[in-house]
Specification:
The protein has three helices and no strands. The chain has one domain (1-92). The longest helix has 31 residues, at 34-64. The chain is mainly alpha-helical. Keywords: Membrane, Transmembrane, Transmembrane helix.
Length: 93
């Protein structure tokens, strides 16, 4: 189940972009890094929420069905993704 570990890491990177995009939304931005910000916004706003939700649910189901164990994946990363998913649910809805 190496692909779950990989997708957890990709979802975490997208979640970081989501947090950066939320910070940019509430602060005054001077448009000096527009090229970089465009990529961060696409990952943060468009991809982070659906990917994080799917990966958290999929990993939780695999953990309940005993297909994977806590030893094979980084538990801190999974728990952090769940915490960010709760934050995304609060911000988006």
């Amino acid at each position: 189940m190496r692909w779950i570990r990989f997708l957890l890491k990709v979802a975490f990177i997208c979640n970081l972009c989501f947090i950066i995009s939320e910070i940019l939304r509430i602060t005054a931005y001077d448009h000096s890094f527009d090229n970089v910000v465009n990529h961060i916004l696409v990952l943060g706003v468009g991809i982070a929420f659906p990917l994080n939700g799917l990966i958290c649910i999929l990993t939780g189901v695999f953990l309940l069905l005993k297909k994977i164990q806590w030893k094979t994946l980084p538990p801190w990363l999974y728990l952090l993704n769940i915490a960010i998913l709760i934050f995304q649910l609060i911000v988006n809805y």
